[in-house]
Amino acid sequence: MAQLNVNLIAKSRNHFKKKQGLPEYLRTLTHLHFSSKNIEDIGDISTCRNLTVLYLYDNQITDICNLGFASNLTHLYMQNNSIAHIDNLSNLRMLSKLYLSGNRIAVVEGLERLTELKELHLENQKLAPGEKLLFDPRTLLSLAGSLCVLNINNNKMDDVRDLAVLKKLHSFTAADNKLRNTEELEDVIGVWPQLLQLDLRGNPVCKTPKYRDRLITACTSLEVFDGREIKEMTRQFLVNWKASKDGKKKKNNTHMLAGLSTRATWVCNPRKMQRSLGKQAYLTSSCFTS
């Protein structure tokens, strides 16, 4: 196992070329590539103050630490490690893309100060039996103004209603979870006016009647749904179909309310009911005698 530190960077042929002094090189370094290096710990690399992209995927890292110096970091790749908690990222105010898939995270938290975060990748967490991925409401509220891409594939989730606050989403991927309720999904994506891509493949909800039609009409900005492009002709047909269906439903409800109102009047005013029934009886008898 190894620790990411200045010495390891100096020994790397992919980085330090010895054409310049190590301190100068570390100060000018913007990209650091240390994926698949059996790294289990992040040491002191604070001399890399201009670091903008850090690749640490496919290692054995258990804790996110010693990155408080990296105020210029925009991309952090830490997928396929052994991270259980999202910690120590509050100083990364410029972070735009965060990759944490394939770790051991059960609760998404600690991102309250990442107001520039646009992409969050959390798919395929190694969860314990009975666990499902959860989101801290404070983190969701903090990300509501910036997050555009969210991937939560294969995390045993059965409810995404808390995610409705993420109104800037362009792409939402939640395949291979346990989502079952079409109405709940309609309510959520219906308040995402900028959503362009949606992937729910592998969820039980996909087997419900009119699943695709209902979600397309719930979010008319969608362009790609479950890997298939939505043609404008199809969208317009479904929108018209829903409008017609809603119109008929509204008309039926109006008739039903009118009937209920009449019955209520009769209950409250028996004499009026008697006069009405008497008039109906008179009209009926006239029809038979004429």
From TrEMBL:
PROSITE patterns cross-referenced by the UniProt entry: LRR
SUPFAM superfamilies named in the record: L domain-like
Leader peptide range in chain numbering: none
SMART domains linked: LRR_SD22
Keywords: Leucine-rich repeat, Repeat
Keyword Repeat: yes
Annotated protein name in UniProt: Protein phosphatase 1 regulatory subunit 42
Source organism of the structure: Scophthalmus maximus
